Amino acid sequence: MTFDWHFFFTHLFNLSPGYLGAMQRTILLAVIAQTLGIVLGLFLGIARLSKFRPIRYAAAVYVWMLRAVPELVILMLLFTGLAAAEIYRFEDAYLFGQIKVSAGFQAACVGLAIREAGYMGEIFRNGIQSVDRRQVEAAKALGMRRSTMLRRVIIPQAMRVIIPPMGNQFNVMLKVTSLAAVIGVPELFQTTGTYAAQTFRVFELFVGLAVNYALMTSVWSVVQSVIEARLSRHEATAGSRTLLGRIREHLIGTGGREAGQTA
């Protein structure tokens, strides 16, 4: 069977309402899971630096466990395992009495978020540790509480280090959402599989799916480049790196000559 170019381009540029809905669902799932992962990760990062050993060890065990277990296993444990063990069963819910949030979507948000928190916890920990100790000592000398010091001194300065890997994690999250198909979430991967079963155009549809994932992650790479450029605009080396250069670096990497110059 030959590749049907007409079908491919029609599907790529004239998306059906069902496919558009699946794309919106994919992006929404990624945003919610990443946001929850960031919030949980912030607390984990702070806990990893706690003076109290039980808190520090508990956070370390959480990070180790959640990073060691595949996302697919976590999703199956949450959605199927808990229900089978009669511990907890996710049920369809309605926001404002109208917007349906399926049980699978809820489980996917929770599962992807708690695993993402393990990575974000380490990112926050590294970011906090990157702040100059003299800044911390100065804040202490001014009589700041630890919470105030974190909010006004440490976290704002750490964001310059945190944002790049955080952006990369969201890029990964956009692709990892495809695993939610296993628990019945009609995101891009599952919807494409459904269309493929109906049309028997498996190759064309999944090539189109790959293109759509590439487009989504590329758009986010551009957004991430803009954010990083704004955060580093006061650095001494910021002037030597244009916004276009940052975008090129995110999309296709840095050339050998440029890498040699930055080294």
TrEMBL record:
Q: How does it sit in the membrane?
A: Multi-pass membrane protein
Would you identify the family this protein belongs to, as annotated? Belongs to the binding-protein-dependent transport system permease family.
Query: Would the keyword Repressor be found if you checked this record's keyword annotation?
Result: no
Keywords assigned by UniProt? Answer: Amino-acid transport, Cell membrane, Membrane, Transmembrane, Transmembrane helix, Transport
Q: Which Pfam families match?
A: BPD_transp_1
**Membrane-crossing segments per the record:** 27-47, 59-85
Q: Where in the cell is it found?
A: Cell membrane
Q: What is this protein called?
A: Amino acid ABC transporter permease
Q: Where is the ABC transmembrane type-1 domain?
A: 23-228
Q: Which PROSITE patterns match?
A: ABC_TM1
* Recorded superkingdom: Bacteria
Keyword Membrane listed: yes
Q: Which InterPro entries does this UniProt record tie to the protein?
A: AA_ABC_transptr_permease_3TM, ArtM/GltK/GlnP/TcyL/YhdX-like, MetI-like, MetI-like_sf
Q: Which PANTHER family match?
A: L-CYSTINE TRANSPORT SYSTEM PERMEASE PROTEIN TCYL, MEMBRANE COMPONENT OF AMINO ACID ABC TRANSPORTER
SUPFAM superfamilies registered for this protein in UniProt: MetI-like (SSF161098)
